[in-house]
Amino acid sequence: MTDGVHWAFHYLGAEWAPGGEGPDRYDCWGLFRVVQRDRYGRHLPTIQVDPRSAIACSRAIAAQRTSGAWHEVGEPQDGDAVLMAQGHIPTHIGVWIDVDGGRVLHAQQGAGVIASSAAALTSMGWTCRTYYRWADGG
Fold first, then answer.
1. DSSP assignment string, 41-90
2. 25-26 and 15-16 as β-strands: parallel, antiparallel, unpaired?
3. 3-class DSSP assignment, residue 29
4. Cβ within 8 Å of residue 60, ≥6 positions away
5. CB of 109 within 8 A of CB of 52?
6. Confidence of residue 61 (pLDDT cuts 50, 70, 90)
7. What sign does the CA torsion over 110, 95, 120, 102 have?
């Protein structure tokens, strides 16, 4: 945090847009990719996928998950990947932020970039399926 403001605050309120990678428009992968690059220096691939297609999103997330760059963790930390699902298959990704007991920063169609608590995610129909950390631990 700088001056008492968490870094994620600067992304809040941006619009949701398919293929968006900032600075004012994001889809879920675009937001995740930009945060990982700008905040952590991790360069993730661009994924050309229609973010409105659950099947396409699921396949893209699975490819990243099995790339070896990430490993599953039980307790998330600031900057970890959060895979979410509306059902059994993850189709949405966000970034764990250590704010107010833990929130997920994500780009939600119809809402834009928001930081959701577990209760808010549940009310939107999302469940946090798994958490992943960059393999180098940093």
1. ---PPP----TT-HHHHHHHHHHHHTSSSEEEESS--TT-EEEEESSSSE
2. parallel
3. helix
4. 29, 47, 49
5. yes
6. low
7. negative
Q: Distance between CA atoms of 126 and 138, rounded to whole angstroms?
A: 27
Q: Which amino acid is at 29?
A: W
Task: Tell me phi and psi for residue 40, to 5 degrees.
Answer: -120, -5
Backbone angles phi, psi at 31, to 5 degrees: -65, -45
Tell me the pLDDT tens digit for each residue of 92-138.
899 999 999 999 999 999 999 999 999 999 999 999 888 999 887 54
CB 97 within 8 A of CB 1: no
The length of the chain, given as a count of residues: 138
Domains for the chain: give ranges and CATH numbers.
8-134 (3.90.1720.10)
